[in-house]
Amino acid sequence: MPSSNHAVLADRPSRGGRTIARRTSLAAAFTVIASLLAVLSGTGAANAAVVYRLRCPDTSYAYKQTTAPNGVQVRHHELRKGDVAALDAKYSDGRQRCEWIHQTDLPFRKPIWFSYSFRQTGSMPADWVTMTQFHSSPESGERSGKPPAFLMQQSHGRLQLLPRHEDRVHTTSEVDPVVRYSMPWFPAGSWQRIVVRVTFNHAGDGNVTFWLNGVQKYNSGPIKMGYNDTVGPHFSEGQYRGRSSLTTAFDFANVEIGTSSLIDRVTHPKPLPN
After folding, report:
1. Using CA atoms, how far apart are residues 151 and 263, in angstroms rounded to an integer?
2. Rounded to whole angstroms, what are the CA distances from 88 to 21, 50, 93?
3. Nearest Cα to 21, choosing from 59, 53, 51, 52?
């Protein structure tokens, strides 16, 4: 398993307006295989057929996957001053990211579960830094850069859970998120066990439920959540932020995502890396 990955990425169109990465080197082809093996070896049955695309700066440190002595796989996403992924160079605002992007469209009106252990090291920017998001790809007649239907981020020292909802068939203008839950951000260097259940339904009966270290912190009850789309959102984890001069690293372990219940991870979490 490679300890780092900084393959050049290019986009090609796919169904529903999605772009899927075409990797442009032999080393990158091995990355595709490595990504699939990573999913099949230690991320759980909920992930069994999942393939990811990596979107990171072309540096030796941006992304590394390692295995701890106790067998737990850790995905390390690190950003430093000036780091910009190739596909983000078109933006003038200096946005930065290193993300694993799920390549499976998830369903509407059905609970989706994700679980992972999370640790932040380095310095945190005061402004927003996203750790998890569910993106809904632009469909025919919609604007590019469609914001995520749900995201988890740090902002000004607080963890925030932010869903969006949209009833229009065509999203032609940006939809603002709603801060449904907020709490103090995690102490640097500490592992946190996170379990989340989300249901996307723009018309109602959507839901966000959040557990932290075995304790339920939030349950939204029925809410409108997500876009009025024909294709469901896709999941990503990693680090995405505005321009910053700080060095920040996010580590993810025991990542699982799917429609199978992960409620058992609340009371019986997987071991932390040691």
Report:
1. 20
2. 14, 24, 9
3. 53
CB-CB neighbours of 240 under 10 Å: 26
Give the per-residue pLDDT at 174.
84
Instruction: Say what the pTM is.
Output: 0.83
Q: Does domain 9-267 have CATH number 2.60.120.200?
A: yes
Compute the Cα dihedral for 12, 101, 121, 186 and give only its sign: positive
Taking the C-alpha atoms of residue 124 and residue 64, their distance in angstroms, rounded to an integer, is 20
Structural tokens at position 268: 């019986």
Residue 108 has a pLDDT of 96
Is residue 151 within 8 Å of 176, Cβ to Cβ? no
Q: Which two tokens stand for residue 33?
A: 């295989």
Query: How confident is residue 17, by pLDDT bands cut at 50, 70 and 90?
Result: very low
Contact (Cβ atoms closer than 8 angstroms) between residue 240 and residue 97: yes
| Residue 32 pLDDT exceeds 90 | no
What gap in Å lies between CA 231 and CA 18, rounded to an integer?
Answer: 10
Domain boundaries, the chain: 9-267
Residues 81-114 have pLDDT tens digits of 999 999 999 999 999 999 999 889 999 999 999 9
**Rounded Cα–Cα distance for residues 236 and 30 (Å):** 21
The pLDDT of residue 18 is above 80: no
Whole-angstrom distance, CA of residue 210 vs CA of residue 266: 10
Judged against a pLDDT cut of 50, whether residue 260 lies above it is answered with: yes
What's the token pair of residue 95?
A: 């946005």
Q: What is the reported pLDDT for 228?
A: 93
Query: How far apart, in Å, do the first and last CA atoms of the chain sit?
Result: 19
